[in-house]
Design a protein that fits this description.
Layout (H helix, E strand, L loop, with lengths): L1 H63 L2 H5 L15 H35 L4 H57 E8 H6 L3 E4 L8 E4 L9 E4 L5 E3 L5 E3 L8 E5 L5 E5 L2 H4 L4 E6 L1
Parallel strand pairs: 1-9
Antiparallel strand pairs: 1-4, 2-3, 5-8, 6-9, 7-8
Length: about 280
């Protein structure tokens, strides 16, 4: 009687131990799964925080890129007539645009790295994806602005080049007109030489007496030398005596002895002096 009871008790104990072992195993497995789940949640939370911080940093860097401020000096209304995008300012503008472009490229690289990390970590949060999409949109807008500024610089430079060419042409025309107005033509020589060249002729008088020497009006490049009276006011003469036979106002010039004992023509009033364009000096 006791032996069957003993066997039954042993069997019951064995079943109880088996059930306990199964329960312990399930408990340990559940605990491990819970810890794994908690670890995964913590990892996901860490990735989320890291991704959010990275997005915030990229956004801050994008906010620091201000093409409008940098390009403010490039707008046509802010260029005065005296400061039409000179070469130094153009170079400065291009350097500023290059820095902005480099900043945008760094932002694009950081966004690409962020997307790669999100894919690798398996974080697929709609909010984060939307933030990343907004970053991309912001980058695109700033790239368009940079491209517009570059085009603006090129356009302004073309305008400046055209203006510079026009200014040079105007200056050349003005200088040509100034030189034309300021230039007289001087013929110097003895009476015999100038008469032989046809520059002067003896006129008037009676029976060969009382004739006066007067310019004939002949204009020849071989005889007359141009003189810019705006820049040259003293004409050395190759003789100790000389007289002007052309019709310059007497108050507009003086014939004075020079340091070498020869005569010099000093132009006192250039405006009056050049009222008569041909200057004829007879030396003796």
């Amino acid at each position: 009687m006791r032996k069957p009871l003993l066997i039954g008790a042993v069997a019951a104990i064995a079943l109880l131990l088996g059930a306990t072992a199964v329960f312990v195993h399930k408990y340990q497995k559940s605990t491990a799964e819970l810890r794994a789940t908690q670890a995964a949640e913590e990892t996901a939370r860490t990735h989320y925080v890291e991704a959010f911080n990275a997005i915030a940093e990229i956004q801050d860097s994008l906010n620091a890129i201000t093409p409008d401020e940098t390009g403010r000096r490039l707008r046509p209304e802010n260029l005065t007539a005296e400061q039409k995008l000179s070469e130094p300012s153009r170079q400065q503008a291009l350097e500023s645009i290059a820095l902005l472009s480099a900043s945008i490229e760094r932002a694009k690289d950081r966004i690409g790295s962020l997307e790669a990390r999100l894919r690798k970590s398996g974080v697929q949060v709609v909010g984060l994806q939307k933030l990343v999409a907004n970053l991309k949109q912001s980058v695109s807008e700033k790239e368009e602005r940079i491209a517009m500024l570059s085009g603006q610089v090129d356009s302004l430079q073309s305008r400046v080049s055209g203006l510079a060419t026009q200014v040079e042409e105007n200056e050349a025309t003005i200088e040509e007109k100034r030189r034309e107005l300021a230039t007289v033509y001087v013929a110097i020589g003895t009476q015999k030489e100038l008469a032989a060249q046809g520059v002067i002729a003896s006129r008037g008088g009676f029976l060969g007496l009382g004739k006066t020497v007067q310019p004939t009006g002949l204009v020849s490049a071989a005889v007359y030398t141009p003189l810019d009276t705006d820049h040259e006011r003293v004409v050395p003469l190759p003789a100790a005596k000389a007289r002007a036979v052309s019709a310059q106002p007497p108050t507009s010039y003086q014939l004075m002895p020079g340091a070498d004992g020869k005569v010099e023509l000093h132009i006192i009033d250039p405006r009056e002096f050049r009222r008569v364009r041909q200057v004829v000096i007879v030396t003796a």
